[in-house]
Amino acid sequence: MTLPDTDRFRTMLLEERERVVAAIDHLHRENPGSLEDETGELVSGSADNHMGDTATATFDRELDYTLEGNAEAVLTAIDGALRRIEDGTYGTCRVCGREIAPERLEARPWADLCIDDARAQERLD
Question: CB under 8 Å, gap of 24 or more: what pairs does 89-96 form?
């Protein structure tokens, strides 16, 4: 088994972590109140507001919630990869124990499954 260059991957992961945290912070700044606050203002704010405005605000906020959820999942995966670097298991599939292909780690440095087990997991989801 060829050990990955953990120093390089640590740097990649830390840079990606900063980017993801900044994206989550941006979403929080863009949407400081709740969806109910925003749609309530649209409904009660003016007689000129249309149901479409409320629907648009709802859609936009739901999209932001989805983006935030995805970003938080990536952040969790990055933190897990950083822990695996520290404990010496980085680059090893958590299901079968085989080496994760270097190409996969290049594309997705937080990967904890080899491509075969990742595909099997996707079929189950």
Answer: 90/4, 90/6, 90/9, 91/3, 91/4, 91/6, 92/1, 93/117
> Are the C-beta atoms of 78 and 21 separated by less than 8 Å?
no
Q: Which of 112, 82, 64 is nearest to 16 (CA)?
A: 82
Torsion (CA) 103, 109, 114, 118 in degrees, nearest 10 = -110
Rounded to whole angstroms, the Cα distance separating 71 from 21 reads 8
Predicted structure pTM score: 0.76
d(CA 125, CA 110): 19
Q: How far is CA 118 from the centre of its chain?
A: 16
**Taking a C-beta distance cutoff of 8 angstroms, is the pair 79, 110 a contact?**
no
Q: What is the pLDDT of residues 37-47, one digit of tens each?
A: 555 554 454 54
pLDDT greater at residue 101 or residue 62: 101
CA pair distance 38, 43, nearest whole angstrom: 9
Contact partners, residue 38, CB within 8 Å, separation at least 6: 31, 57, 61
